[in-house]
Amino acid sequence: MNNNLKIYNMNVLTIIKYLFYISNILLLVFYLYPGSIFGCLIYSDCKTQPQLTRDFLVSSNHVYVFFIISLLGFLAYIKKKSVAWILLYLLFISIFLELAHLFIPNRGFEIKDLAGNFIGVVISFLIFLIFKLRKKK
């Protein structure tokens, strides 16, 4: 029975890793597209970005996206050293992608978007740490 549980956990971990990889590819596509892919599909207007919820001080869409991608990354690479690298990667990619908007037509760099990226990463990291600490006890 114990071997079956290990195999099951390895399969779940593999699926989470693939979801993390796929979500990163999608993030690059949506971030680097000159306009809004969802705006093109939903509103037939590539300049309009749909909002899931209203923005408060930061971009809520960015918080949601980076929260999900970060949580997938932390779960996929749950080992202590790997989590530190994933955290650095996520912070780097959020800065890089937002700065790329300076050069992409119909896109613009916004501090509130960058802050939303960071907040999404930090919230998922804190939740990950809380669950990891609870698991030890």
Q: How is this structure best described in words?
A:
With 137 residues, this protein is mostly helical. Helices cover 74% and strands 0% of the residues. The chain has one domain. It has five helices and no strands. α3 runs parallel beside α5 (111-136). It is elongated. It starts with a helix and ends with a helix.
Q: Could you give the topology of this structure?
A:
Elements: H1 2-32, H2 37-43, H3 60-76, H4 80-100, H5 111-136
Helix pairs in contact: 1-3, 3-4, 3-5, 4-5
How many domains? The number is 1
What would you call the shape? Answer: elongated
Q: What is the count of helical runs?
A: 5
Radius of gyration: 17 Å
Quick tags:
single chain; 137 residues; mainly alpha; 5 helices; elongated
Brief summary of the model shown:
This protein has helices at 2-32, 37-43, 60-76, 80-100, 111-136. It has 137 residues and is an all-alpha fold.
